Amino acid sequence: AHQLCTEIVAAPRCEAERDAARRMLPRLQHKLGLEPAARREQFPVATVTLPVGEQGVERAAAELLAQTWSSVHYVANSLMNGLFGLAFWEQIFAPVPGVFHNPYQSIPSDMYAQAFRQRRREQLAERLRQLGEVALPRELLSAWHRYYGYQCRWLHWRRLSTGLLERALAVIPAEHLLAIWERMLFDPGENRRGFPDLIALGTAPGDYRLVEVKGPGDTLQDNQKRWLRFFLEQQIDAGVLKVEWRND
After folding, report:
1. Which one, 13, 128, 210, 221, has the greatest CB density within 10 A?
2. What is the CA 217 to chain-centroid distance, rounded?
3. What is the three-class DSSP state of 141?
4. Residue 200 in contact with residue 171, Cβ under 8 Å?
5. How far is CA 173 from CA 24, 113, 144, 168, 177, in A?
6. Distance (Å, whole) CA 127 – CA 32
7. CA angle 116, 117, 121 (to 5 degrees)
8. Could you tell me which of 78, 170, 81, 90 has the C-alpha nearest to residue 130?
């Protein structure tokens, strides 16, 4: 069991399988007399106390961060999912046999299955290579204008303006986006969720921060922990902002 769990963690089929193996490993190591791997994760956490308002914790946190950043946007999953959809539009809607059953589908039927990447392995590998060689701001903004208004479940057009795209792509390094897209392609169904609530943007390349906001009594979900863990590994600036209320 220990050997199988170790192999699964190294090469999982999906995020759920990796999570299950990681939960079992410490118990198996303990039974075998091995030193259990550390399980407690230390994500960057800051705590602020704000006056009670009607706008909710995310909006209140965004207003606070806007005092020190050029702009702050409440994006949750919409920004990164939208960038993914623009980057891989042609591959998502590639004419793979058996995945489109009517002309109004906003994604192929295998979009959230392991088969999605397996059936398009060569096309996706080629697209990743292309994205690593082009200027991403120009490429993705061109895609936005080309596909605007068409139905795609990855894009919420009303939440993805060209202004936000321009500001985000001006500071998010291409290598960060490519790493994020690789992880999303590994398990599209699971990894389309769990992105931090806010993105705080500076003015220079690399000057941005992803912020997960938690109000009183709220805790991190598994998919949020996975993304925070990934951001730490990739040296992407991300953390948790805990909001506590005060009555003025």
Report:
1. 210
2. 23
3. helix
4. no
5. 36, 29, 19, 10, 7
6. 45
7. 130
8. 90
Helix (H) / strand (E) containing 248: none
CB 224 within 8 A of CB 212: yes
pLDDT in tens, 23-47: 888 888 889 888 876 666 688 999 9
Question: Residue 192 carries which side chain, given as an amino acid letter?
Answer: R
Residue 27 to residue 42: CA distance in whole angstroms: 21
Given a contact cutoff of 8 angstroms between Cβ atoms, the answer to whether 230 and 35 are in contact is no
Please write the tens of the pLDDT for every residue from 132-170.
999 999 999 999 999 999 999 999 999 999 999 999 999
The answer on pLDDT for 248 being more than 90 is: no
Residue 242 backbone dihedrals phi, psi, to 5 degrees: -90, 130
- With a CB cutoff of 8 Å and minimum separation 6, the contacts of 38 are none
Identify the CA nearest to 169 among candidates 194, 144, 141, 193: 141
What is the distance between the alpha carbons of residues 168 and 36, in angstroms, rounded to a whole number? 41
Within 13 A of 54's CA, how many CA atoms are on the CB side?
A: 0
Helix (H, G, I), strand (E, B) or coil at 187: coil
The strand pair at 71-74 and 208-214 is best described as unpaired
Give the separation between CA 183 and CA 14, rounded to whole angstroms.
10
Instruction: Give the residue among 131, 144, 195, 201 at the shortest CA–CA distance from 170.
Output: 201
Instruction: Please state, in angstroms and rounded to a whole number, the distance separating the CA atoms of residues 146 and 138.
Output: 12
